[in-house]
Amino acid sequence: MSGVVESADHEQVVFCRDRASGLHAIIAIHSTALGPALGGTRFHPYSSEDDALSDVLRLSRAMTYKAACAGLDLGGGKAVIIGDPAKLKTEPLLRAYGRFVESLADRYYTACDVGTFPDDMDVIARESRFVTGRTRTHGGAGDSSELTAFGVFMAMRAAAAHTWATPSLRGRRVGIAGAGKVGRRLAEHLSADGASIVVADVANAAVDQLRARHPDIEAEDPQKLLARDLDVYAPCALGGVLDDETVPALRAEIVCGGANNQLAHAGIATLLRDHGVLYLPDYVVNAGGLIQVADEIAGFDERRARAREEKIFDTCQRILAMATDHDITPARAADHLAEQRIAEISRPRGSWRPNQATAPQPREVAP
Asked: Could you tell me which residues belong to the region Disordered (predicted)?
């Protein structure tokens, strides 16, 4: 485990234990070069602490790049609570976790992720000021999946414009892997735009619920969707679905979805390009949720947040143009934009220190 931490380039990794409540958590702050780190808390039954540590280190680093490409004055962080939320999630545990978040002062803001919800953030906020993604009842924006899906749709429109010279998905067949909150809302946007939709999910009830609203949506076996004759493949469930074995079977021209960490390893981006597939990096595509919870820190304004979401279209166009001009993958182009902004802004700012200033309001700045 020590080798994993030592090989990472994170500013701070905190192991959190509270035996009374059963809390076992890890908070990772990757970078505060642009401002305080922001990232959700994932509650998941990891098989080991090493697996949890690897996940939180990888996810927190991605948050740094996501915030930078989104033009936010925020850094990257993430937290994981180890265990089955259906069995272990209690008020004492969440409040104990909140006290650890508070101990980091404004170096880290937490929010929802897999296994945690706005109601949980309300409980955590009873112990910490540095919580966002709360319920509307408590002044928050509520569920972030709506704007996340809208951002994915904006990115998909940019990919369509680059590939087919039109930002519309009308008449295109889009395969959505995952009929959860983001996948379901993405289907709504695509349906309104005139796309033909194929959806797959391991939970049949989620597919049935979506098809009850849109009977023209086709259901598919999750194991077969990726190899279907599609124009766009949209991973909106688990990560790691694109690997050395699945990419050769992929028939879509575009991969653009809301799932985190879609590539099994970095080399898959090149493999996709060589296979003739345009892949937009997931951390750019799914930045809508981050934009929403970041906006909430300053007092949520839906119109302002949606306007920032729309800029995902412009950012994706810029990434695709850079990839074409420099003959690199869109993934590398996105990394370059993020790293360039971090380098430019971090020189005058330096590291973010607790109570250095009031948390900044995310600005409408293109990366």
From this structure: 344-367
pLDDT 10s digits, 305-338: 999 999 999 999 999 999 999 999 999 999 999 9
Residue 3 has pLDDT above 70, yes or no: no
**Three-state DSSP class for residue 206:** helix
Domain at 2-58+78-138: CATH code: 3.40.50.10860
Domain assignments of the chain as residue spans, ordered by start: 2-58+78-138, 145-285
Find tokens 């280190």 and name the residue.
57
Maximal C-alpha separation, the chain: 59
Three-class secondary structure of residue 72 per DSSP: coil
- Output b/e per residue, 310-341; b: 16+ Cβ within 10 A: ebbbebbbbbbebbeeeebbbbbbbbebbeeb
Spatial distance between the Cα atoms of 170 and 207, rounded to a whole number of angstroms: 22
Token reading at 105: 């002062």
Tokens representing residue 282 in the block: 């997931």
What is the rounded distance in angstroms from the CA atom of residue 59 to the CA atom of residue 181? 20
**pLDDT per residue as tens digits for the range 16-31:** 999 999 999 999 999 9
Q: Do residues 140 and 121 make contact, with C-beta atoms less than 8 angstroms apart?
A: yes
E-strand ranges in the chain read 12-18, 23-31, 37-44, 75-82, 108-112, 173-177, 196-200, 218-219, 232-235, 254-255, 278-279
Quick check: 176 pLDDT over 80? Answer: yes
Confidence category of residue 55, pLDDT binned at 50, 70, 90: very high
Q: What fold, for 145-285?
A: Rossmann fold (3.40.50)
C-alpha to C-alpha distance for 101 and 36, rounded to whole angstroms = 13
**Residue 106: how many CB atoms within 10 A of its CB?**
21
User: Cα dihedral angle (232, 366, 73, 135), rounded to 10 degrees?
Assistant: -50
The residues, any chain, with a CB within 8 Å of residue 35's CB and separated by 6 or more, are 72, 73, 74, 75, 349, 352, 359, 360
Q: pTM of the predicted model, to two decimals? A: 0.86
**Which 3 state secondary structure label does DSSP give 266?**
coil
Q: Residue 2 CB: number of other CB atoms within 10 A?
A: 6
| In contact, 127 and 102? CB cutoff 8 Å | yes
Tell me which residues are annotated as active site: 78
Secondary structure class of 15 (helix, strand, coil) = strand
